[in-house]
Amino acid sequence: MDWTEKYRPRRLQEIAGNASAVRQMYEWARDWTRGSKPLVLYGKPGVGKTSSAYALAHDMGWEVIELNASDQRTRPMIEKIAGSSSRTGSLTGASRKLILLDEADNLHAHADRGGAKAIVDIIGESMQPIILIANDYYGLARELKAATEPVQFRALQARQIVPRLKQICAAEGVVCSEEALAWIADQAGGDMRSAVNMLFAAAIGRNRLTGEDVRTVRKDERSTIFELVAALFKSRDDADLLALSYEVEDTPDTVEQWIEGNLEHLPDPVSRARGYACVSRADEYIGHTYRRQYYTLWRYATAVMLLGVSRAAGGHGIHGRIMPPSRWQKMGRSKRQKAIRTALTNKLSIMTHTPPETLREEFFTLLTLLVERDPARYVRELQLDADELNLFLQDRARSAKIVKDAAKEAKAAEKKPAKKRKANPEEPAEEETRQNPRGQSTLF
Amino acid sequence: MLYIYASGSLIADHSPGRPVFDAIMSDGNIKTERMEGDHTIWIEKYRPRRLGDIVGQDDIVVRLQSYVESGSLPHLLFTGSAGVGKTTAAVALAREFYGDTWQMNFREMNASDERGIDVVRNQIKQFARTSPLGGASFKILFLDEADALTTDAQAALRRTMENYAHTCRFILSCNYSSKIIDPIQSRCAIYRFRPLGPEAVVEEVSRIAGLEGLAVSQEALDAIVYVAQGDMRRAINALQGAAILTREIDESTIYAITSTARPDEIDDLLDLAIGGDFDAAERTLRHLLQHRGIAPTELLNQCYRALVRRDIEGGLKVALIDSIGETDFRLSEGASSDIQMEALIARFVLCAGKYA
């Protein structure tokens, strides 16, 4: 039997790492009432999201009904399975049924049409606890995020992975060297399932494992891209350099990013200019490759950037550390920014009866100026959250504070409507706008 | 050999050594027949049946054999370029696991035929969830060219791999593992198949030549290695093509049958162009393209390979490779190959002049 299934944790206390996430789940389950928001477990693959959900159900004595991307998840389908079970009791007498929507960020645009909306509706009506699982929290539909409570699962440390591997080795009667275990844990990159798989793949048919034995299973990818970048800056034979690049698992577009990220190591402005010229030429080939699906062009990208940058470096070597491309971090951030911006534009578009493109192109500057002048009011009117307000203000701390104050004020207004009314004459304009129905805001 | 059948029986035997696949059936129609022995495609005929017969991937073979011995198997991901043994390894693994009944519990699907999410939700799930036959403890689904699956389809595959792990193991093959989403990589043991080295190609080609009773010269073996570029399929096809023409194979047969220029012809062309003699270079080019019938893209490929190894100033080398790339791109966009190839030679001459 597959070890990842055989040794999947059955109870919450067996989950490696992510103690605070597990505690949050347990408290949620313990205090669960019909009004509780569903949880969204999110994080990278193999950190224990699905296992934790099953373990929680086991500890609570709940049944699990799972829907994942291998099931069709159109609206009728989700309603049929999750909807009916969420409103009815259990046959086997289990106290509750946990509805588990795995891969919630992977609802297919066409095959799963209406799926996200159906989930939101079911959340609203459910008589049973629901857990959603996703890799990419920002890939979730906005309505889903609003209706749920996030629980983050972090990548595991090597020191959290090794003990688990040792338990498995003991149970299977495999003697595995510390070096091999450390290597596997390091290679897994925080992914427990991958670590267990590597151990399994290496251990089948053996009862003794050394560092050498585990290395055939997966090649050390990161070290080769580091090697390639290092070789590039030393003088190396051209054919060797290209041969090394075939050893790297990454595609030329990734290699390009690494090279570009390290061009600052070139000794002087002239060589740097040469380096950039080659990378930019290579970039054209990469673009053509994808545009035309003509993968032969890849080799020109590889040759031009490797040989070109190698020549520009002139055997100078790298003095300092080889860094992963900083662009990735930036791209991660800008992806999030983009998601927020799109969500906000769509919301405004509905409120103002204006197409999203028009809003983006013609109204954004104006809106920014208006929001600057009276942020609190716009927070109330447009129901902005801190991220959205920050798009206008570009000041994270201030945005957070304004949104917080607005929320406090709104709560106070709910509790003491009489008092609030007294305070109002000072701000007559605001009162007027508040009485306007949504969608006909006077702001536009 | 040419067999001619009348009413299904053999009546004549012409031109020995030339395999022809047609036979005339009793109703007078011509039927294409694949005959075991002479007329099958050699890459099928000589595809290794056992893991131990696979050449050039020793580390991987040893691990796969130990999976067979212990009777257990993780999900596998085979990565590597074409013709390095991924499919052969998967099929041989299944044969050794199940013996004669291997076809009952092994299914091969090519993901590039059907790459959408429905294929995972329907066909793959259907196969994975039914129980294995003949007392086997699990079935094997071999998903060839899995990198052709859309991201959505791959996402649909991930829980399927876990939920049906008790009845089915997956072997995925792909050219680039970076096109397989992380959650799937996390579920597989990854094996990287390297391009085959010259020794492995020579070993296999010599074995087949021996069984077929062919005489292959050392130069011809070198030529096959050059043509194959680490791809066993290409090597064996070149050998079979040459064997159709003659039983005694030399290098010129190999270059002719594969429409490849000899490496020294390519060197001549580059020497002339870099030396600044446009007219002579252009004559050589025309000879190769028109008289030898070498395809323009193949010529570009060979020039590229020769240039990478050539000992010239680095800046010139990059400029020349860039010129080849530009020409390749223009050809792919539909430009005229005659004009573009001549322009390439002209650009070689100009670049060489600049760096001289």
From TrEMBL, chain A:
Residue ranges of the region described as Disordered: 404-444
Keywords, comma-separated and alphabetical: ATP-binding, DNA replication, Nucleotide-binding
GO BP terms in the entry: DNA replication
Family under the similarity heading: Belongs to the activator 1 small subunits family. RfcL subfamily.
NCBIfam families registered for this protein in UniProt: PRK04195.1-5, PRK04195.2-2
A GO MF term: ATP hydrolysis activity
Keyword Metal-binding tagged: no
SMART domains on file: AAA
UniProt xrefs under Pfam families: AAA (PF00004), RCF1-5-like_lid (PF21960)
Official protein name in the record: Replication factor C large subunit
Compositionally biased intervals (Basic and acidic residues): 404-416
Annotated AAA+ ATPase domain residues: 35-166
